[in-house]
Every structure is written in structure tokens, then in C-alpha cells.
Automatic annotation (TrEMBL):
It comes from the Eukaryota. Residues 526-586 form the VWFC domain. This is Dorsal-ventral patterning protein Sog. One of its GO terms (biological process) is dorsal/ventral pattern formation. One of its GO terms (cellular component) is extracellular space. Signal peptide: none annotated. It holds the Pfam family CHRD. InterPro entries: Chordin-like_regulators, CHRD, VWF_dom.
Length: 791
């Protein structure tokens, strides 16, 4: 690639790229001069300069979070789903690329180049980025550069082949049959490995191609493999002034090599405990082999294990490298620094394997490393091991998954499986997101793909929701492979390291920790987390303190603590059962329970109460009603509740948060009810419905806990029915699209004045007719008294 005219490339920065078209996707890889930071963006343009596509390559300062790209100093990416018209441009070599440095909308400098085909790329093992050599004049060499495509053979007669694409080393008068020098040398020892003089018949200003082949020694190949050789191309007439040079290094293509590790199909005798694993390796910019091997479910009887890299083309599976010394806690991670050609050649030809051996089995599990282009999902920090969830699967069933999120907030995945038997089985790939591992945790399940065979990769077209992104970043993520017909999970893994770009997460102006409930819909359908457990909307439960009850509303756990009603017995007769809040008189239960080990009692609001116990009812949404006392009848084992008057109750009741802040301190008396203390269910015999309960619920209706056969219709308003207390008219609820929202009557100044104003003309006001307590009206009463005193 060369600079665009009138650009500010003062340091003569050079880049070389490799492009691979695979399954309608165009993968790209670049080496950039050490003199420049990573470019900001990459543009694909046509011959008229029209931008066809633009990709962001790095953040501020040229930073990227990719472990692979930082270790190899490569720039990697993919243009997915290349349109047909653009594929034609690519095929006809009429597509160009532009690397852009600088901030957005203000380019510092750019490099451009034409995407062209070269036969030598099919066997490339090494690459070289050719830049103006040290000591040359930067002005004279402005715009000069090149790249080398190097292949090697390690047969009986080792040899190398070099194809060099270059420009910028010809004098103005050199127009035909111009000789150039090409040299491959060990610079530190001034040792020449290869030196040739090749003639260029028609030198071009843009690009020139020369090729050379030569036999080499095994020692030379080792130096080549370890990145110690320097390639240079120079003018014969002015070799010191017009010269390009660069180290021969790892192939420019962004790729890694991966494999699942398993035993032969259905071989339970060899692998009775179902041991599995995975491996992935890559070459860094120094030519060293970085390896990562994971082995799971090893039984103590199978230890110790021996992990080796082997050449699978030989009958005895020749051992090339021993990775056992670095195997700790199920992982073998490390680097092979002095890489030899006998490892590199089988690696690139697909014949390098990973073998796990025990003292009794020469090959407990194994796998053959295959090349994969690095981009999107495979640019994640590490893959995860998919293990069996279905015990009926053979022990060879295993998979590996790569997952990442791009700057556009799309999730990308790449899953490879093996040992599953028939490759025609229809499968589904799911991503399940939890806020954390806890009982009852709410799960967001997203279908990523449907597939059959051993590999699937892609990305959903729609972006992830805010809640999904937060759970990916801070929660727990499962990747599962399921049977499409039965929906049974076959393989699964926890994805622990998914980095979500900051631009995809909500922004906060302070240090508050963001919650999952980001909008109304999420809140209304969210779950509550309390004391290490999750509860669904509308649930009520007893906290670790038996006197505290909680319920889940709009994603928040709301709790209230109750005091105990007085009981009529001496203190030495009071007993309190395990897990209960209030004591009971021992004589009320001892006689009945003496002949049975099953505790006798009543169930109320999902909570058990011993026979004879007294308690205050817990009423959603306002907590304990301290002015109502309920008792579990020790003979009938039925709950009976009695409502005290406001004045009598509050003379001996402690002020609780429910009494002060909600309508639970009072209860409205319905004039149509048979009596002030008698509670009966609502009369529903006169209600006529022309729709079935299923139809009402399907149209957005809401369930009716007091009568499941009479659900509330969508849009209907109603008063909740409280067991043992009846219709609670202080609260009005509305059903909307399957969700219930409830509001209590507000205690306004007018209502409070009506409740407590002085009586005139023998007209009495009963405070039980209102939904406001004395405590809630105190501020209005104080204000009213002050005005009376001032007058």
C-alpha cells in the first residue's frame, strides 16, 4: 500500500494486507510499520473513490482490546455479507482499500492500495513488510514500499520461494530491462542465505513483481522460522540509496488454529469418565507458538496426564513438543519460543494434533488443529468448552464456542462441535443470560441460530437490548446447543469473559451501580433479588427474619416487619415454634399434637401458622395491617380475622412504616356487608361473561387469584380481594396487557378535614369510612389547629 498524494505521511509509513473471501465474507489482515500507531479506520472504495464500506479499527490512540491483535501486531477484521455487485468488483480487481489515521472527520494521513490476486498466496508461510531501509533518504524514498510472500519446503531437499511486490527503487531513466538485487541474510552475523539479481522487464510506478526460488539448509529454515532473517530489495545502480528491507516474519493473515479434544466415538472403555477438552494456538509477531490447552473431567485414576503436539501424518504420531510441564489446574498455557520447521509445516497443512495420554491409554483424548480466520467472534479473548448436559450422549460429545460483542452492539458467535453422532440432526444455538447464579434468577433466552452439522457462526441482525448487554457485561451467560425437536439441552458452557464496548452500555453521571431495570417494561416484568434469591413479580415470601414479610413489585423487593398481637397466657406458657414470628399459648396446641408428629396449623398468604397463633395479616402492597388481628382456630384450623377500630388499635399498636406510609392502617367498612367484622367473598353469581377465561387472558387479561374462572379483562379496573378481609376498596387496580398496576387512595387535605372536622348538627363522621389513618392526616390536623388558634 502506498500513500495518497499530498498526504502527511512524513515517516514513510508502509502497510501490507491479505484478503480472503470465504462464505460471502471478505476477511482482511494488515501488517503496519512500527513507526505508526494502529489506523483509526479502513475504507473500501471503488476506482472512482466512492466509499463502499468503512470499518472502525481502533479507539483513541490506536488502542484495541483484542488479545490476538496486540500479540501479533496485526490488524484484523471482516466485511460480512459482501453484496453481489461488490463481489464482482473484487473479482475484477477493481476494489481498493484506504487505511486512515487521525481523529474522526480529520484524517492525519492515509495509505491506499489495490486488492489484487497473487498465485503465491496459496502456499504462503511467511511474510515481510518492506520499508525504506535505514540510511536511505526519506524524501527520495517517499511512497516506496513492498511486501514479500515466502513459502518453504522441508522435504529431502529444503527450499524456499519468494515473491516480492514492490515499488519506489527505480531511477527516472530506468524504463526497461532493469536489474534489481534481492538478498536474504542473517544481518547480525552478515551471513548471506540467498542473493540473486533479477531483471524487471518493464518497471512500473505502481507495482512490480519478482520471484526467486533457492535451495537452503535445514539450519537456514530454522532461522527463517524464528524470524531472524532480513529480506532486502535494492537498485543495482544505487544500492544504498534505493533499497527496501524488512524481517521475514509470521504470515500476515490473521488466523489461529483450534480443535476440540475427545475420544473416538462411543469409546466408553477408553474414556469412561467422559474427559473432554479444547486447544487453540497461534503465532505471535516474534514467530513463537502461543498455545492454550484445556482438559476437563479427569478422574484421579487417570492422572498424571501427558500433553504433546504430534504430527498425525506418521503412523506412530511423532511427538514434536511436550506441553506437560506447563499443565496446571486443567490448563496448559505457554509459548514455544524456538519453533522448528517440523512443527510449522504440519501446522499450516492441517496435520498438527494435540494428544492427551495417560499411563494406561496412549490417547485418552485428541484433536487435529485446523486453521480459522480471526475476526468478530474468533477475536474474543478465549473460547469456552461446551460440555455434555445430556448423559445419553456419547462421552466424545464436546464443543467449543467463541462469543464477542462488536462496537455496533451485535453479538457474534462461532461454535464447533464433534462426537455428536449424526451430522444431520437439527440443532439450535441459544444464549441464556442471568444477572447472577442464584435460586430463581430470571433468565433471558435468545435463539441465536438453527443449524445441523459440526459448525455454525454468525450474528443476529438486530442489536441486543440494554438489559441483555448489561447481563453480558456483568452477569452470567450460558451458551447452549439444544435438540430442535425436543428442546433438550445437549451441550452447554458458561461464557465468563465477554467484553461489551463502553459505547453499548448506558452512561451514568456518577458512580452509582446501574441496575437491570432500565425502563418501565423491564421493571414491570422484572424479578426481585433479596437475600441471595430471586423472586418473580407479584411473589410474596418470608424473609430470614420470620417476622418480616416481603413482596416483589416493579423489580423491587418491599418488606415490612410485624409486631406480635397480645395473647392471654402467662409467660411460662408461651412457646414459639421454629421459623415462626409470634409465640402461642402451649395449652392451645399441646393436646392436639400429642398424638401426631405432623404440626397442626393454618396456611394464610403462603405462610404457615401454628394452631392457636395470633398474627397481623400481610397485605400487598402496603405491608402488615396492625389494626387487624387474625387467629388460627385450634379446633377448626381456619383463619378468622377481626378488625379493630382505628382509635382502639392505635392506642396500643406501635407505629410501623406500613402504618405511617400506607393505607394499611385503616380498612374501609362496606355498608352493604353483613356486619363490620364479618368478611364474605364477593357475589359473582350475577356477573355474566361472554368470553372464556382462556380468551380473556389471551386478549391481555389478568388472572384473578380469588376466582381463576373470572379473570379480569384487559382495561378493567377493580379492587383487590384479600382473603379473610374481603374487597379492599382503598386500593384500585387496573389490568393492562396482562399486567396489573395498583394505586391506593391518596390522603388529600379535603379527605382528612372531612374525617376529623368538628361535628355539627349532630352529624357524626366514622373514620373507618375512609382509607386514611390518623398518622397520615397528622400534618393536616396540625396545620388546621394552628389556623384555628391564630384566628
Amino acid at each position: 500500500m502506498q500513500q495518497i498524494p499530498n498526504d502527511q505521511n512524513k515517516n514513510n509509513v508502509v502497510a501490507t494486507g491479505r484478503f480472503t473471501f470465504h462464505k460471502k465474507n471478505l476477511y482482511y489482515s494488515f501488517y503496519i510499520s512500527d513507526k505508526a500507531a494502529r489506523p483509526r479506520s479502513l475504507q473500501f472504495v471503488d476506482s472512482d473513490g466512492t466509499i463502499l464500506e468503512e470499518h472502525t479499527l481502533s479507539g483513541a490512540g490506536g488502542l484495541v482490546t483484542s488479545l490476538y491483535q496486540n500479540a501479533t501486531r496485526k490488524v484484523c477484521g471482516v466485511w460480512r455479507r459482501l453484496p453481489r455487485d461488490y463481489r464482482r468488483l473484487l473479482k475484477d480487481e477493481r476494489m481498493f482499500v484506504v487505511l486512515v489515521w487521525g481523529v474522526k472527520d480529520q484524517a492525519e494521513f492515509t495509505l491506499s492500495g489495490q486488492i489484487m490476486k497473487y498465485v503465491a498466496l496459496g502456499t504462503e508461510l511467511f511474510s515481510s513488510l518492506l520499508e525504506p531501509a535505514p540510511g536511505t533518504n526519506s524524501l527520495v524514498m517517499s511512497g516506496a514500499g513492498g511486501t514479500a510472500i515466502v513459502s518453504a519446503s522441508t522435504t529431502v531437499s529444503p527450499s524456499i520461494h519468494i515473491a516480492v511486490v514492490f515499488n519506489g527503487i527505480f531511477l527516472p531513466d530506468e524504463i526497461s530491462d532493469v536489474p534489481v538485487n534481492i538478498t536474504l541474510a542473517l544481518d547480525e552475523k552478515k551471513q548471506i542465505i540467498l542473493e540473486e539479481k533479477i531483471r524487471v522487464h518493464k518497471p512500473a510506478h505502481e507495482l512490480n513483481l519478482i520471484e526467486v526460488s533457492s535451495p537452503v539448509t535445514p539450519s537456514d529454515l530454522r532461522l527463517l522460522t524464528r524470524g531472524r532473517l532480513v529480506l532486502s530489495v535494492s537498485s543495482v545502480s544505487k544500492p544504498q540509496a534505493l533499497r527496501l528491507s524488512g524481517n521475514v516474519i509470521t504470515k500476515a493473515t490473521c488466523e489461529l488454529f483450534q480443535s476440540t479434544l475427545n475420544s473416538p466415538n462411543n469409546d466408553r472403555a477408553v474414556n469412561p469418565y467422559g474427559s473432554t477438552g479444547l486447544a487453540w494456538v497461534y503465532l505471535n509477531n516474534e514467530g513463537s507458538l502461543v498455545y492454550n490447552v484445556q482438559v476437563e473431567d479427569l478422574h484421579p485414576d487417570q492422572r498424571p496426564v501427558f500433553i504433546t503436539l504430534v504430527d498425525v501424518t506418521t503412523k506412530r504420531k511423532m511427538e514434536l513438543e511436550d506441553l506437560t510441564p506447563y499443565f496446571v489446574n486443567g490448563w496448559a498455557n505457554g509459548t514455544v519460543d524456538k519453533l522448528s520447521p517440523r512443527v510449522l509445516e504440519p501446522l499450516y497443512s492441517g496435520n498438527l494434533g494435540v494428544n492427551v495420554e495417560t499411563q494406561t491409554e496412549k490417547s485418552l483424548i485428541r484433536g487435529r488443529l485446523s486453521a480459522r480466520l480471526v475476526a468478530d467472534a474468533r477475536d474474543a479473548r478465549a473460547p469456552v468448552l461446551l460440555k455434555r448436559e445430556d448423559s445419553s450422549l456419547p462421552p466424545s460429545a464436546v464443543g467449543m464456542a467463541w462469543v464477542t460483542v462488536d462496537n455496533e452492539c451485535h453479538v457474534h458467535y462461532d461454535v464447533s462441535i464433534s462426537g455428536m453422532g449424526s451430522s444431520e440432526k437439527k440443532l439450535e444455538l441459544y444464549m441464556e443470560l442471568l444477572p447472577m447464579i442464584a435460586p430463581g434468577a430470571p433468565v433471558i433466552s435468545r435463539l441465536l441460530d438453527e443449524f445441523h452439522g459440526n459448525q455454525v457462526e454468525g450474528s443476529p441482525t438486530e442489536t441486543l437490548s440494554k438489559e441483555e448487554l448489561i447481563r453480558l457485561d456483568t452477569g452470567v451467560v450460558f451458551i447452549k446447543v439444544k435438540d430442535k425437536n425436543t428442546k433438550n439441552p445437549l451441550l452447554s458452557a458458561i461464557v465468563r469473559e465477554v467484553k461489551v464496548p463502553a459505547s453499548c452500555l448506558p452512561h451514568f453521571t456518577d458512580n452509582d451501580v446501574p441496575t437491570i431495570n432500565l425502563d418501565t417494561d423491564v421493571s414491570q416484568n422484572g424479578a426481585c433479588f433479596h437475600e441471595g434469591k430471586f423472586f418473580f413479580e407479584g411473589d410474596q415470601w418470608t424473609a430470614s427474619d420470620p417476622c418480616t414479610m416481603c413482596y416483589c413489585q416493579n423489580g423491587n423487593a418491599k418488606c415490612d416487619t410485624s409486631s406480635c398481637p397480645e395473647i392471654s397466657c402467662s409467660s411460662n406458657m408461651k412457646v414459639k415454634g421454629s421459623g415462626e414470628c409470634c409465640p402461642v399459648c402451649s395449652n392451645s396446641t399441646s393436646s392436639q399434637e400429642s398424638n401426631t408428629s405432623v404440626p397442626r396449623g393454618c396456611s394464610f398468604g403462603g405462610k404457615f401458622y401454628s394452631a392457636g397463633s395470633k398474627f397481623h395479616p400481610f397485605l400487598i402492597p402496603n405491608g402488615f395491617d396492625l389494626c387487624t388481628e387474625c387467629i388460627c382456630d385450634s379446633l377448626l384450623l381456619e383463619v378468622k380475622c377481626t378488625r379493630h377500630s382505628e382509635k382502639t388499635c392505635c392506642k396500643h399498636c406501635a407505629e410501623s412504616k406500613a402504618m405511617l406510609d400506607s393505607e394499611n392502617g385503616t380498612y374501609i367498612s362496606d355498608p352493604s356487608s353483613p356486619g363490620p367484622n364479618t368478611i364474605t367473598p364477593p357475589d359473582i353469581n350475577g356477573v355474566v361473561s361472554f368470553k372464556s377465561p382462556q380468551q380473556i387472558l389471551a386478549e391481555g387479561g389478568c388472572k384473578n387469584p380469588s376466582n381463576p374462572n373470572r379473570p379480569y379483562e384487559n382495561g378493567q379496573k377493580f379492587h383487590p380481594w384479600i382473603a379473610s378481609l374481603g374487597e379492599y376498596k382503598c386500593v384500585t387496580c387496573k389490568c393492562k396487557n396482562g399486567n396489573q398496576s395498583c394505586e391506593r387512595q391518596r390522603c388529600t387535605r379535603a379527605i382528612c378535614h372531612k374525617m376529623f372536622r368538628p361535628k355539627h348538627n349532630d352529624v357524626t363522621s366514622n373514620t373507618t369510612e375512609f382509607c386514611c389513618s390518623q398518622q397520615q392526616c397528622k400534618r393536616y390536623r396540625r396545620h388546621h389547629k394552628a389556623r384555628d388558634n391564630n384566628s
